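Re: zinc ion structure - here you go.
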Amino acid sequence: MRNITPPVRNDVADYRTALAGRPIESRTLLVGYEDAIRAAYLSYEGDTINILALQSMALLDPAHAALLRENYSALSKGRALEELAADIYEAAEFRCPMCNFEQAATLDHFLGKGTYPEFSILARNLVAACNTCNNKKGARPSNGFVHAYFDQLPNQQALVAKTVWEPELHVSYSLAEGHGLELNLFERLFSQFQILRLEDRFAREGGYVLAEIMSSCAEPYGRGGSALVTAELSRQAGLCERVYGINHYKTALLRALAGDDHFCDGGFSSENG
Ligand SMILES: [Zn+2]
């Protein structure tokens, strides 16, 4: 749940580089598609609504789709376009933009290369993703997902953590409505949240860091009571926001804890005893 800036690439040059490594027959055939590819690349612009509405390119022969798709293998290690893959990982700072916490170890085709083989190596269509998110997204239609490059998430808290005492402390996560997101974007964000099972994944990660946070509260509490615990948690939330963004599970967790009077007034030690 965060935006990233796509790497700046010469897309047509990337296409030519991929072809250079192909056997002569495929290469000749794919060179014939260069103008159509260039036109398709130009159409992959504007906003996500426009991108989602794109028709797949007309091919002279259905078998040519497989040839276009195979260009993607040029991004593997040691192959002609490995630098393109590296640029995409770097653009995401190696952190998955969909969950915003797991390491990005795969590349996701925003428009799947099954339906859109012409975009198999287009930098703007390739987004670094973690294994978990990429597997859960799979070959699902892209209209249920946010495009990390093209959708602009407002710099407001959309991810909300809530403290639940029953009687032990748990944390639950949800998406907040009414924070200035246009409806279509909110719907896709919500759909992505469900498909990627972010509620459960955030709750699990939040649970791990919660224990750490709890054990760090005794010291400020001893010096300045609940007011100092609140201030300290808010300070940490600000730091976390600057490093990982406003919609990171830990930022949301720290804000929720800072706003929980019971937690700050000694409730943090309830699981320690
Ligand atoms: Zn992820």
